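> run fold Deoxyribodipyrimidine photo-lyase
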Amino acid sequence: MGTPSLVWFRDDLRLADNPALRAAIERGEPVIGVYILDEESAGVRPLGGAARWWLHHSLAELRDRFIDRGSVLVLRRGAAGRVIRDLCDETGAGAVFWNRRYGGPEREIDADLKSALRDAGVEVASFAANVLFEPWTVTTGAGSHYSVYTPFWKACQEQPAPRKPLPEPRTIPGRAQPPASDELDDWGLLPTRPDWAGGLRERWEPGEQAARRRLRDFLDEDLGSYDAARDEPAAGATSLLSPRLRWGELSPHTVWHDTLEHAGTGRHAASAHGFLSEVGWREFAWHTLYHFPQLAEKNLRAEYDAFPWPSPERADLDAWQQGRTGFRMVDAGMRELWSSGYMHNRVRMITASFLIKNLLIDWRRGEEWFWDTLVDADAASNPFNWQWVAGSGADAAPFFRVFNPELQADKFDKTGRYVREWAPEYADDTDGEPAEPMVDLKQTRRRALDAFDVVKRSR
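> ok
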């Protein structure tokens, strides 16, 4: 029996287009998959509740697919560096492979582990798998990173085309006596007291196979209307692929090439271009996080440190979280989020703007709530998008751009279908009583702009 290869899975819960898995199989020795629930390593952000729910189900499918192909996925809990070293000792592993991560704490963990394993004589290799363009490969003419999306995405498109996705392995060579594994149910990832995940179960089916079906359905049925209807939350034109990309059930390379092959130069080409530009926005978020690891805690634009956030009223934050603001689009969006772990992107902008600019609550409080309640919240896109709305981030919307939630509802939910689904008391044909508006939009807009004057004076 040879020295086995460990494949350390992180945010890449798939068999197809998994370069680390492919390298392990090609090494020609038994392969052991590993997933570590790391809530101990310094700087690693604990997962939110909705993310933990998704992780449980995605891991369950990945574990079963490993078994079907002849190997095992070992589950362990603890500080990742220590767990991997222990597994190498237990199994006599001769190699460890993983796909790269781009957050600051995660890169430190991986670099330290790589060094320790090599010193111990273990082969180690990492691979590009979860972004199309690794953050250090896209630079300005001066050699620095980008802070504006349009030139960033143009520079990406001038790079060599993203590689073709790798096929899924038919078999994974296993080991006669695999190491012990934790029981997934013992990790307590699913809510029980209370079980608030009914809406998530109704809306989502985590796992690689469901992710592939969703991509295929989107390309076949929705891509053609994406460009025209993507801002309408009731239109059903969005891809719903964000949690699939967040957990790596699909690789961005698969999404990229399948979209281009499906669209070709035909009538869906414009929609395909618009959709892939959103994939580019995800790339820009990871590019920004790589160069600014404190994205969830600190303003990217330092002048916003002077913003005079008042002490938030707990009741105001509660009303926003619970969808009781008295503004139909905000309330509908926040209830969709709580029920399903998801919110349409246009509505995310509306609800975020309302919290930051009408309630004058620090963007970090909203980012924390989305981190806990979104199934697709990742370390890059979640804080990146909150800072974009707040005006403090990369290529940000200016602070004085304050969404009027009522005008947004009139424009993007003209028939009221979205509001009727999630906040039916605002519809004319129901007996429900909507909440009274908690603030005056004009007055709070003026208050926000007055506060922004402090930032302008600090420059």
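The longest strand covers residues 31-37.
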